[in-house]
């Protein structure tokens, strides 16, 4: 049997997963690490902690599965996007990585927009200047830590640092690189025009590959640490969102995924790059060769229900423990006892600002329309509906960009609730297909590794073989008018509360 290894360098920990060539999970291992916040709004991690977690995870899955490392035919790496890793000439890390959720770079975003122009920036990179992207972080280091900037030999993304440790090769791939805001997503290579305008030396950036291309092989030093076989191929891999989409089979235009995790994502594969002139959704290169993707993001999806549980549900937590049932199953069951429209309550899920459709890091969340008739169940249902409306905002923009929609697949922790799935289907007014994608990005990059190793002919062929949809959720025709009216009220709320 041939095996494939997927590594996902996340924010809270690194997941290592071993699969057979049919996509069956053999063994997984997750190791966590710290996130540092030196100041309010800052977020950093030590890249060496990622590598330590990788080494432990790889050794664990090899030892526990009792397979011969020579039977691992390819390795794929995924990871948190947009992080900045700086390497000096001695191949040492210069400073902690500034990661995706860091918000220190507002001045640099203004600098980028003023230098390039918003329209041109969207045309080249698919996005307006955003605090989370790598480019603004690099300029922040230049503006605030000039000595560190002078020492830079290479700029890497988080997963590409792990590639370097495994292979000794400096490389990037198109899906993750397009999230740096330095890649021309039309040519799928670094934008010399943008780099020249911002006075950034192109030589500090690694070569860019397509995601299925073998970028290097495991070197002896890494082999000794991890127990992987020397010369095991490592493919380009993918950023976490593109990798997760492949794990869901979103590899052709017409297929859309909706993921209800901590954040919520609506993700569409496209045959050509499509742009929203207002920059409300991200347009990036997909990990599938010659494909792109559009992505709308709701910052506080599952996060909203988790926050409500922690803050207002002491009684329900106790009740769920006594009954031996999952607290989220209990809460969504209570939500089903409220009416569609939550008896007038509208919830705005802006607990961490918002990205789509409002690029507004400062907007706050709200419950609106509360009256004496409302009870706890109405509040819970309003959260499920509010997240659904926010995801529909993402879907509406994608539809307006003339993207063909044939099938919407739903996954993530929130989607495990049949009640939340039904609410989402009713709000979208689309049939939804559930997909079990527990290994997510790790499976996605293992599929890419299988293509690079020649086990599969294409990403599309591999997904047809491995990714299977489960039950269908049909929208309730009787609720179209109800949710249409509530959605109208929801959409009218942001302009009224955004300055509070």
Automatic annotation (TrEMBL):
<dbReference type="InterPro" id="IPR006000">
    <property type="entry name" value="Xylulokinase"/>
</dbReference>
<keyword id="KW-0808">Transferase</keyword>
<dbReference type="InterPro" id="IPR050406">
    <property type="entry name" value="FGGY_Carb_Kinase"/>
</dbReference>
<dbReference type="InterPro" id="IPR000577">
    <property type="entry name" value="Carb_kinase_FGGY"/>
</dbReference>
<keyword id="KW-0119">Carbohydrate metabolism</keyword>
<feature type="domain" description="Carbohydrate kinase FGGY N-terminal">
    <location>
        <begin position="3"/>
        <end position="247"/>
    </location>
</feature>
<feature type="active site" description="Proton acceptor">
    <location>
        <position position="240"/>
    </location>
</feature>
<dbReference type="InterPro" id="IPR018485">
    <property type="entry name" value="FGGY_C"/>
</dbReference>
<keyword id="KW-0547">Nucleotide-binding</keyword>
<dbReference type="GO" id="GO:0005998">
    <property type="term" value="P:xylulose catabolic process"/>
</dbReference>
<keyword id="KW-0859">Xylose metabolism</keyword>
<dbReference type="GO" id="GO:0004856">
    <property type="term" value="F:D-xylulokinase activity"/>
</dbReference>
<dbReference type="Pfam" id="PF02782">
    <property type="entry name" value="FGGY_C"/>
</dbReference>
<dbReference type="InterPro" id="IPR018483">
    <property type="entry name" value="Carb_kinase_FGGY_CS"/>
</dbReference>
<keyword id="KW-0067">ATP-binding</keyword>
<comment type="similarity">
    <text>Belongs to the FGGY kinase family.</text>
</comment>
<protein>
    <recommendedName>
        <fullName>Xylulose kinase</fullName>
        <ecNumber>2.7.1.17</ecNumber>
    </recommendedName>
</protein>
<comment type="function">
    <text>Catalyzes the phosphorylation of D-xylulose to D-xylulose 5-phosphate.</text>
</comment>
<dbReference type="InterPro" id="IPR043129">
    <property type="entry name" value="ATPase_NBD"/>
</dbReference>
<dbReference type="InterPro" id="IPR018484">
    <property type="entry name" value="FGGY_N"/>
</dbReference>
<keyword id="KW-0418">Kinase</keyword>
<dbReference type="Pfam" id="PF00370">
    <property type="entry name" value="FGGY_N"/>
</dbReference>
<dbReference type="GO" id="GO:0005524">
    <property type="term" value="F:ATP binding"/>
</dbReference>
<dbReference type="GO" id="GO:0042732">
    <property type="term" value="P:D-xylose metabolic process"/>
</dbReference>
<feature type="domain" description="Carbohydrate kinase FGGY C-terminal">
    <location>
        <begin position="258"/>
        <end position="452"/>
    </location>
</feature>
<feature type="site" description="Important for activity">
    <location>
        <position position="8"/>
    </location>
</feature>
<feature type="binding site">
    <location>
        <begin position="81"/>
        <end position="82"/>
    </location>
    <ligand>
        <name>substrate</name>
    </ligand>
</feature>
